[in-house]
Amino acid sequence: xxxxxxxxxxxxxxxxxxxxxxxxxxxxxxxxxxxxxxxxxxxxxxxxxxxxxxxxxxxxxxxxxxxxxxxxxxxxxxxxxxxxxxxxxxxxxxxxxxxxxxxxxxxxxxxxxxxxxxxxxxxxxxxxxxxxxxxxxxxxxxxxxxxxxxxxxxxxxxxxxxxxxxxxxxxxxxxxxxxxxxxxxxxxxxxx
Length: 192
Prior knowledge:
The chain is of the alpha/beta class.
């Protein structure tokens, strides 16, 4: 993290990437509780719902022409700028078929392009930051391991810290509010 001219540490900037297919669903509810009760003092937060920022199917241009990608525009530009500005990336992602929702996978595919956009150094912008996961699933926590493993590998590849996973249980909207263990963990989740 950079130091401001006053010598104080710059505030942390948490980007919450909501990948749920349901507005206000269990995963979002759990993430908002964690944000309200455990973000570090002075931390900034930005919430982006991936469904509100749709991206077209990703096209791999690495081996065509000069391998560079066009300057991002529209939703892609919004997501890129928010990602570059973040010190902490929080994936608010329910477990869908044991892995990440499609919108997160597509967003991550775009990182391959952002590595190659002239003037954008995504790797440098994220290096030293932290990746977090908030998820809710119906079933036992071990069913989230494939998704968590993916995010841990991404953190490692990007030279970021793995902050951890907050896992709740629920199926119907509001079910997670009955998961006492998840509610307790949410109150201190971002303090690690």
